[in-house]
């Protein structure tokens, strides 16, 4: 078409062909050759490929890669589509897009370190568990006395469901003592004050709930409040008669409480809610949730990439078609599902295919985020290739893994080439 001689065209293409051969074709060919030899250089035919499907670590990596390929690109593309459509309807859409796209400026390694801290199990350090604990405690507040229990000489006994109840009914005008032990002094409520005996009242059932323990051998009196002992500030007490709660109250900072005369003749009970273990969040980095947790960090980074590409495609969608659908009576969901999404199908395919290729070689996040106890459960093929080549010193198995990754990429690339050719014919 340009009149350029073939020899001249080859001359100009030669540098690119040399680089392509040195950086792509030669590594592929050598990896294929090396995959038929073991770590000592002996020919094993397909022995290394058999290892791919018999070694537990590699099979876990293959399974996790399958999860990654199915979940991560699909969810990232869906989020990108939602963000792109919704940001068109708000004035501050550009600012929102900027915030969502900003994680793309962070390297995978840095993002892995960030999310290793985000997923920390300690709510005081990990953001994810800090949010989870805050939401949980909003609806079901944790107790300050999870380890509290009566001593051997206590007037309390065990009740069903983890509660404690008095052995005998209580009477108005006779102060009740409800001693417990088992709470460390430094975990007592901040507002707790020294316990003191309750005052007798003929019209009320009064008493004291406190930590019946004084440091130092032989100090303090059993089942009697001492000034060195703290009251159970905020602990709940119920009066129970014939299995029904007739009155309830909470203890003050010094452990004293008062119940109305309806509690006369009833038994006093500490409900099990007083001793609920504190909620410490979710084990994000545990073996069960480690892969979804890492996928979550990937979505944080790549949803912005999907959003920008889809938003660019959305900007080219003819607005007349959307308005025509609305004039014909379609609601916004119908317009989105039947008009917007079909028109964006080529862009969505590009984003989906790009992300599928990207997750097949995911390495940094999986290498950095999991702790040692969960690394095996989070394993993927790229990390296993690194482990086999540099830790196990088995270049044969590593080459076989590299060829498996290459084979997995080929169908996606063929689909992409076919799609581009179909687009070019339109």
From TrEMBL:
CDD domains for the chain: TM_PBP2
Segments passing through the bilayer: 66-86, 98-119, 299-318, 339-360, 397-417
Keyword Transmembrane helix: yes
InterPro entries for the chain: MetI-like (IPR000515), MetI-like_sf (IPR035906), UgpAE/MalFG_permease (IPR050809)
Subcellular location, record wording: Cell membrane
Record's keyword annotation contains Transferase: no
Main location: membrane
Domain ABC transmembrane type-1: from-to ranges: 62-416
Assigned keywords, A-Z: Cell membrane, Membrane, Transmembrane, Transmembrane helix, Transport
Membrane topology: Multi-pass membrane protein
A Pfam family it matches: BPD_transp_1
Compositional bias annotation for Low complexity: 189-204
Region Disordered, residue ranges: 189-225
SUPFAM superfamilies: MetI-like
Family stated for the protein in its record: Belongs to the binding-protein-dependent transport system permease family.
Protein name per Swiss-Prot or TrEMBL: ABC transporter permease
Organism, as annotated: Streptomyces alfalfae
């Amino acid at each position: 078409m340009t009149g350029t001689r073939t020899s001249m065209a080859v001359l100009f293409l030669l540098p690119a062909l040399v680089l392509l051969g040195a950086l792509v074709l030669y590594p592929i060919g050598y990896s294929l050759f090396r995959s038929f030899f073991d770590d000592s250089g002996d020919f094993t035919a397909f022995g290394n490929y058999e290892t791919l499907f018999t070694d537990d670590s590699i099979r876990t990596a293959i399974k996790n890669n399958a999860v990654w390929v199915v979940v991560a690109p699909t969810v990232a593309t869906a989020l990108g589509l939602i963000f792109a459509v919704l940001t068109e309807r708000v004035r501050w859409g550009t600012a929102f897009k900027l915030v969502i796209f900003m994680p793309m400026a962070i390297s995978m390694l840095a993002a892995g370190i960030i999310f290793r801290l985000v997923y920390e199990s300690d709510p005081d350090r990990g953001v994810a568990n800090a949010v989870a604990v805050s939401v949980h405690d909003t609806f079901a507040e944790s107790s300050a006395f999870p380890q509290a229990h009566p001593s051997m000489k206590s007037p309390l006994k065990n009740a069903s469901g983890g509660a404690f109840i008095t052995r005998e009914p209580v009477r108005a005008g006779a102060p009740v003592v409800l001693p417990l032990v088992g709470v460390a002094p430094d975990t007592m409520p901040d507002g707790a004050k020294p316990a003191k005996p309750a005052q007798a009242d003929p019209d009320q059932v009064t008493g004291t709930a406190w930590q019946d323990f004084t440091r130092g051998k032989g100090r303090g009196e059993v089942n009697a409040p001492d000034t060195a002992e703290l009251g159970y500030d905020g602990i709940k007490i119920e009066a129970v008669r014939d299995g029904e709660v007739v009155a309830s109250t909470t203890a003050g900072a010094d452990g004293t409480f008062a119940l109305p005369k309806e509690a006369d003749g009833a038994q006093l009970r500490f409900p099990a809610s007083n001793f609920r273990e504190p909620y410490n969040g979710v084990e994000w980095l545990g073996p069960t949730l480690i892969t979804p947790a890492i996928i979550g960090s990937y979505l944080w980074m790549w949803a912005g990439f999907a959003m920008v590409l889809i938003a660019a495609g959305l900007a080219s969608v003819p607005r007349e078609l959307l308005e025509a659908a609305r004039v014909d009576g379609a609601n916004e969901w119908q317009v989105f599902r039947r008009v917007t999404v079909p028109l964006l199908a080529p862009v969505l395919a590009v984003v989906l295919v790009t992300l599928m290729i990207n997750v097949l070689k995911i390495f940094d996040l999986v290498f950095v985020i999991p702790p040692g106890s969960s690394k095996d459960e989070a394993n993927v093929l790229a990390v296993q290739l690194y482990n086999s080549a540099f830790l196990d010193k088995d270049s044969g198995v590593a080459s076989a893994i590299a060829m498996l990754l290459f084979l997995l990429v080929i169908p996606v690339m063929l689909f992409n080439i076919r799609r581009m050719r179909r687009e070019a014919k339109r």
